[in-house]
Structures are given as C-alpha cells and as structure tokens.
Specification:
With about 450 residues, the chain is mainly alpha-helical. About 70% of the residues lie in helices and about 0% in strands. It has one domain (about 5-450): Amino acid/polyamine transporter I, CATH 1.20.1740. The protein has helices spanning about 10-20, 25-30, 35-50, 55-75, 80-90, 90-125, 135-160, 165-190, 195-200, 220-230, 235-250, 255-285, 295-300, 315-345, 360-375, 380-410, 410-415, 420-450; strands at about 210, 220. It has a two-stranded antiparallel ribbon with strand order 1-2. A hairpin with a 6-residue loop joins strand 1 and strand 2 (about 220). The radius of gyration is 21 Å and the shape is globular. The termini are far apart.
Length: about 450
Amino acid sequence: MPSGPLASPAVQIISRLFSRIVGPAAVMAAGTMGAGAAASLILAGAWFRYELLWVIPLILPLFVISVDSASRIGLLNPETGMFSHIREHIHPGVAWLIFAINIPVHLLIGMGQMSVMTSALMSLFGFYPPEAGANADYLANYHGAEIALSLLIAVFIVWLLASRGYQRMQKIMSALLLVMFCGFMVVAVTSLQQIGDILAGFVPAIPPDLPVPGKNAVRISSNSIIAIVGSALAPAALLGIPYMCADNLKGVPDLVAELRNSVVNLGVVFGGYSIFVLVAGGFALYPLPHHAEIDTVHEAGKVLVNAFPAGLEFLGPFFFSAGLMIAALTTFVVVVQVICYFWLDMFGRNWHDAEDNKSFKRLVVVWVVTPAVLAPFWDFPALLKILLLMGFNTIVIPLVIVVVLVLVNKPQLMGRHTASRPRNLILLSALVLSAWLMLEKLPDYIDLIVG
C-alpha cells in the first residue's frame, strides 16, 4: 500500500488502521468471525428476530479478557507451548484429556467449515443442496461436485498456509476481518427503520421455542444462545492464542498494547460484526413465511437481498455465499493452525509456525486434507453442522477456562503480571456462565448425536 507524500489521506488512514489491527488478536477475531459465528447469529435472527441481541454485549467482556489472559501466557513464555504448561503446572492427565477432546472436536469443526465452503461455492453457480425428493442423478452430481471442490479448496489452503508461514497468513486474515466487518455493517444499516425493535432486543429475555411447520422439529432458543456463546468462548481461541502471540513476538512484550488490540479486534470489531449479522438476519429473514425452516446457505443468502437497490436484489445471495465462504475459510485456517500447534507441542516437537519447520508444514497438509476428504460424507445441512459444533465449544470451554485461570495466577509463569482481582472476577464469570450452559444443554447434545 503506498505511503509518504504520494499517498492520499484516505489511503494513509486505511494503512494506519490496518497496521493497528494486524496481529494475533486480529487472526483470532477473523477466525471467530467465521462461518460458525455467522451461522449462529444469522439463524438466531432468522428464527427469533432481534430477541437474542442481548447475548452479544453479555459475552464480549468475557471474550476479550479470557483471550487476552491466555495471550499473556504466550507473550511471557514464548519458547514454551500451552500444553507443556498444562503438563508441568497442572497435570499431564489434564493435558492429555484436553488434547483428546479438542483434536476430534476441531476435526469436526474443520469438516463443518469445509462443508460451508463447498456449499457456498456451489451456490454461487446455482448448484444448491438437494431437497427431499431430489432425483438420483442430481444427488450423485451434487455429491461428486462436493468431493471435487473439497479437494480443490484443500489444495488452495495448503498453499496459503505452507508457502510463506505465519506472517503472511496473519496479514491475509486481518484483511479478511475488515472485509467481513464492512460487508455486514452495510447490510445492517438498511434495518435502522426498525431501531426501536432492535434496541428492545438488548433487554435480556429468552423467547419461546419456535416449531417448524410441517416437521417434527423445534428451534430451541436456548440452543441458539449456547451457539452464540460457543462461537466466542471457544477452546481454540484460548488454547491457540498463546502460540500465535509467541510466534508474533518481537522484543519485549507490551501487555498494555496487546490488551488494547484485544479490545479493538475482539470487542469492537467482533462485537459490531456480531450485532450487524444478527440484525441482518432478523431484518431480512425473520419476515419470510418459512423463516423457521431456514437452515441452508442458499436460503440464508436472502439476508443480503435488502442491501441492493431494486432490480439488483438477485446479487444478495451471491454476495452472501461469497462472504460466508470467506468466513468459513478464516475459521478453517485458524482451526488447522491450532491443531498443528497442539499436536507438535503435545509430542514435544518444535511447534513454531516458521518457514523452516517442516514438521509444521507436513501437519498442515494432514489437517487440511483430512476434513476435506471426510466432509462430503457427513450428511447434515452445512449451517446446522457448525451451529451444532459451536454448542460443543460450550461443553468443552469450562475446563479450558479453569486451565487459563490456574496458569495466569502462577508467579513462576507470569512474574509480576499475575492476574489482578478484576481480571480473575471476569474469568470466574466466564467459567460460571460456560459451566451453567454446559450442564444445562449437555443431555440435549448427547441425545442429538446418539439419535
């Protein structure tokens, strides 16, 4: 990007803004603002209009402080990985338990994101998921195209991650973060005519469950709440950010600057994005007669119809599918990267994402290709896959928050930067919220998977 006397003031402003948000917090925000968060928020708006907006400001302080606390562990101990800390300072059994839970769960999350990418890409060309009663030829063609696209996308992602290392990926993810934020902000502006109803949505209330007409199914409002919470308070964010911060560290860590970046990226940008997406879903999809039935990328694409002038409404689903594909890509990239960190650290190998770390590059290939191969054989609507897996995040996260709480209060790790009383109170609040949601909904998720 040009700079100096030849650069226009607008370019200089954009350049300064970009340089301030780029970094691990931006990468994690971009990953969190992926298809999982988008699906949770769009469907919450489609099913319950604005009535769950209050969940977003509730979780933002917990999200910011939890991720910032975890990032400090990596900044102050850049040569030691998170799982090594857990083994040494808590118990090896806890490290293995978290590892055993997170690897398969994040494999499933990767499969869900890959399904969204292939589904969104095919939707761009008018090739939609088969509905009930679709003929055998259409089913076979769709499935074949899904397999081929999964593999092509996998090749592109391997190139993206393995060609230039962490610094390049960080810049790309930060740019995508701004693109997603601006896109949904434009959509949400069209809903300001309903500002009274939108503001009412910030008053805490749990809406009644929504039956799906003609089907033996119900959209459960508490499940949407859990999915929104799970998209923010994610195990990958808390366990992965220490590695990213360690890889990004240059010189002495500036904890104040890192907190400021977390507030900007995770609080302002992610918070604004979340509100924009839910409002867009409530404004564009809730009024539709079949809003309770919406669960596919193509149907959710109607969220952008009202963002275009008369005669160009058809562009809405196209841009939505493209945006959702980018969102899924950001989350998939973060999932692959943190799995590689976890795996190498757990087995005592060099976990740094560096150009000369061949072990990291080989693992990238494995964890990109594996979900790409498996995803087309997971028979479940793409958006519901990731909605379900955001709920699984809520089941796992209490254990991870306990780990962060213990480590940030260890003087041998944090020195004089052990957690303050307000920070501990916020972390405890996150623990209480996530534990309550886990205990409340764990039986439902077990029944859903078993059934």
